[in-house]
Amino acid sequence: MRIHQEVIRRAHYTLDGAYRPPSESDAAMRLAEGWAYKLIEKEGLHAIVLPEDREAMHVAGLSASTIDALGELVEWYTSPKQAAHMRFSAARALSEIGAAPTNDNIDRALSFFARAESEAAFRTKPQMEDECDFEALIERAKGHVSSIAWTQRLGETTQVPPVEQSPAYTADSQVIPKTDSLRLAPTASSCPALATAPCLTISDVGERLINDRTQDKSWDDKMVRQARMIVDLFDRFLTDERRISDLAALSLADIDAFDTFLRRMGKSYGKAPADKARSIADLRKRWAALPASTVGLEGKTRNKHFSFLTSCWLGHGKPVLLSTAI
Question: Residue 143 and residue 14: Cα distance in Å, rounded?
Answer without folding.
Answer: 6
